[in-house]
């Protein structure tokens, strides 16, 4: 909902009505600020990436992660024209012509990585979350395969046993 919808809800007697658009924008702005601050180049001189001192700060970081971090830092420096706000404004106001329901969102972000580097980092973190990673969700979804009309005479106990076996298997 918008501010108008919030006002109508309040007038209808809902004291807990929210402007969800405003709430979402606050979260996006807080997240943009957080990601921008993480990637903001420091004003102090930085030792070369291959120096032992730099490697000892993050010993578990792979070469890929270090190179990715450097690339993201360079992208941030290239687009540092007033912080994250112009980037977010461009993203919200530009209407790309290459958008469709069937498009590959990861490919789109790869193609627009230089245009929206901060939003890209957020998208990479969000897109990396699997849709059904929790075992109980997978188990619940798998239950539909067992609970069919053909298996309706199994009974609750047998159904539970099959679910447990299927999960453990």
TrEMBL record:
Q: Where is the composition biased (Polar residues)?
A: 40-53
* Record field: compositional bias (Basic and acidic residues): 1-10, 18-29
The segment(s) forming the HAT C-terminal dimerisation domain are 89-166
Query: Where in this protein does the record put region Disordered?
Result: 1-59
Kindly give the Pfam families that the UniProt entry links to this protein.
Answer: Dimer_Tnp_hAT (PF05699)
- What GO MF terms are annotated? protein dimerization activity
Which named protein is this? HAT C-terminal dimerisation domain-containing protein
Q: Which organism is it from?
A: Scleroderma citrinum Foug A
């Amino acid at each position: 909902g918008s501010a108008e919808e919030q006002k109508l809800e309040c007038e209808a007697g809902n004291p807990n009505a929210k402007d969800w658009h405003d709430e979402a924008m606050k979260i996006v702005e807080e997240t943009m600020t957080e990601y921008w601050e993480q990637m903001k180049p420091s004003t102090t001189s930085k030792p070369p990436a291959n120096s032992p001192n730099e490697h000892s700060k993050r010993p578990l970081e792979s070469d890929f992660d270090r190179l990715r971090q450097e690339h993201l830092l360079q992208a941030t420096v290239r687009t540092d024209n007033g912080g994250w706000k112009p980037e977010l404004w461009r993203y919200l106001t530009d209407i790309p012509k290459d958008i469709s329901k069937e498009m590959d969102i990861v490919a789109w972000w790869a193609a627009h990585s230089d245009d929206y580097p901060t939003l890209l980092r957020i998208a990479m973190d969000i897109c990396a979350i699997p849709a059904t990673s929790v075992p109980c969700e997978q188990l619940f979804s798998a239950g539909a395969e067992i609970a069919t009309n053909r298996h309706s005479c199994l009974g609750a106990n047998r159904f539970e046993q099959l679910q447990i076996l299927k999960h453990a298997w």
